[in-house]
Write a structure and sequence with these properties.
Structural class: alpha+beta
Shape: globular
Radius of gyration: 27 Å
Distance between the termini: 80 Å
Bound molecules: flavin-adenine dinucleotide
Number of helices: 17
Length: 813
Amino acid sequence: MAPSLPRRARAVIVGGGVIGVSIAYHLTKLGWSEVVLLERKQLTSGTTWHAAGLVGQLRQSINMTRLARYTSELYRGLEAETGQATGYRQCGSISLATTPGRMEELERNASMAKVFGLTVEVVSPKEIRELYSLVNVEDVIGGIHIPSDGYANAVDITNALAKGARSRGAQIFQDMKVTAILNDGRRVTGVETAHGRIEADYVVLCAGLWTRDLAASVGVTVPLQACEHYYVLFQNVPGLHPELPVLRDYDHCSYFKYDAGKLLVGAFEPHARTWGTDGIPEDFAFGEIAGDFAHFEPVLIDAMRRVPALGEAGIQKFFCGPESFTPDVRYHLGESAELERLFVAAGLNSIGLQSAGGVGKVVAEWMQAGHPPLDLWEVDVRRNMPFQRNRKYLAARVQESLGLLYATHWPYRQYETARGARKSTLHDRLAAAGACFGEAFGWERANWYGAPGTSPRYEYSYGRQNWFEASAREHRAVREAVGLFDQSSFAKFRLEGIDALRVLNRICANDVDVAPGRIVYTQWLNERGGIEADLTVTRLDETAYLIVSGAETESKDFNWLTRHIGPAARCVATNVTSAMGVLSIMGPRSRELLQSLTPDDLSNAAFAFATSRSIELGYALVRASRITYVGELGFELYIPTEFMQGVYDEIVAAGARFGLVHAGYHALNSLRIEKAYRHWGHDITDEDTPLEAGLGFAVKLDKAAFIGREALIEQRARGLTKRLVQLKLESPEPLLYHNEPIWRGKEIVGFIRSAMYAHTLGAGVGLGYVSWPQGAGDALADERYEIEIAGVRYPARASLKPLYDPKNLRIKS
Ligand SMILES: Cc1cc2nc3c(=O)[nH]c(=O)nc-3n(C[C@H](O)[C@H](O)[C@H](O)COP(=O)(O)OP(=O)(O)OC[C@H]3O[C@@H](n4cnc5c(N)ncnc54)[C@H](O)[C@@H]3O)c2cc1C
């Protein structure tokens, strides 16, 4: 008999793996009724049924660790709550280090875990042997032990979550494939199945491997691709017992887990094999794939050395199953940029079981509140560029993604696959000048320069990497003479029309009702006063604006802009990122250099800071904007793409006389950090307000109403509880990266959001929020601060004002 589907629902969840079911569980926990989950075959039949069952908590960032930690807490109590066994066991976990770099990574992570009280013990080889009697530690330097980690049975967890969801009214339909996503062009309206249509306020895509194509059918970008993922079950392992912790041998790509009387050995090999690139068979359910034993064998050989008892055991099962991986090994969560109320939770990169609790909770809360409950930008589906659903790109990149789970997370590590997707028109010229390119959102960007004519390469470490001195030279040249940055990857939008001013002034916290030719630095805020975007807005004429933002947020910011235009407003937004390249000429001699190439007057009197105008340069007309992200006199040149090469050639030819150097993004970052310029996504996010971030100067509370104004007025009256400070280490030696805990006296009061070595200040410098008891004055910044790096605390000087050029004398010179 055909099942009778409801005709409408508040939320339809597509996919009955652990992720979809967890969202149903959490929505009903929030009190949602009319929650319907549709699964094309049976619950868990996609990837979930064959998860190995590891439930770890420590991730590479603070908020991802929070999600994983919540998952563990949830699983711990799920059986008692639902009456359904989950197989959850808190056995602890051990991660091994066999190289100094890995040991430093583990120690840095152990320090990060202190920010929210997760106990992570740094352990010696001897202690590891005591905890895990089967392990061979002859090449082990040390490791970490997390006593509260564990494992669970993925099928049982899914069934327990389903039971909890059903008990609160959720309806779950199996053998019910969603054949189409319905929408009115702006908003999702429901789903179609072979058994009829359901109208819905919200649709959530949790369709695992299938999500990319399902989303693409309505123009939504969810870049993921399935790869083969392997494990082997050993039986009759001497000495095996259920209390053994989970063991991770990152440097040899393997993990070990007790599994119902057997030992499961899984692999995260460096070069994975893609699966299903031509589509997934329609009948694929509880499916295994043949895999290639020879591909897994090198990991197995190392595993047998790590746990010698495997040599006396027998292989009971060799398993290979598909799992979806994403280009940056982060999952895709949240409301899509393209269709309102279409949510996504997919691309779990083989950590779906240990993520499901946290993912279910935050996605449900996001749907309820209309915004993420904490800063989730690193996994926000809106970070993706449309080109990233290109199958050739995905197939190339995900072969690297899988291995990155266990690779050492070197600072500044660059992807090696799917390179060259987006290039500035200057790419080949910069390469000839010695550029070492990094990849950001598909763009190839010069991070640093070696000698002209060479092809420099990264040598990674946690210490000073091989580009440190080269970047220091670029940094100093910008401070002392002049540097050239290719910043063509900036996102650039035009907003034009009679209502452009009205629309923008409602979105911007600063006042953009300025004379044509003025540049306004502003934030876009949400209703809570949190910072959604950080950008410059240039008034081109009475009815036209140029909006410039970072490359990373191109999709998100354009989406924010267009969603706030409103149907009645008479203005049009256009993404002109590809139409213009950007050359930034920065440094005290930038004016002299450019003046030698243009008849237009660039003097301070004629061309003031924060103004912009069209000037002649070479054979081109370019827009010169006197603005800076490095804290020096300088000009950003916005150049029609086809004129880029000619203008660049003229500047470089004239530049030698003025000491012009090519400078890369690493220098840009060290320059901006010592000037304490904030970076969106790190130092400022949707959970930080401009008042907390020290950006109150860019907020005009007394202009016409704008989004976030009331929240800021309220916060100002209430007083701040955290403030952004710049911190400089007293010792010139240690290097800061991010996530290091900040101590004030005996208390951890925050953590570093972004950091870099500051070559002019001569030490590691970071930005981070510290708790600020209400009523505490600015003098709190003078207290004794320390930053913990890999277990050692280093004294640091805090400042509310930039330590470099606090009076802005250089940028206005
Ligand atoms: C070998 C292996 C070992 C693993 N080990 C671990 C581990 O130890 N720890 C860990 O945390 N993670 C592990 N994982 C990863 C984990 O299993 C996954 O991340 C997780 O199961 C993904 O869950 P999901 O709900 O996103 O996807 P799925 O479980 O694939 O669920 C998606 C569901 O959507 C359904 N669907 C698709 N299209 C439609 C449609 N049109 N209409 C209706 N339904 C649809 C599918 O049938 C499927 O059931 C492992 C993965 C593998 C392959």
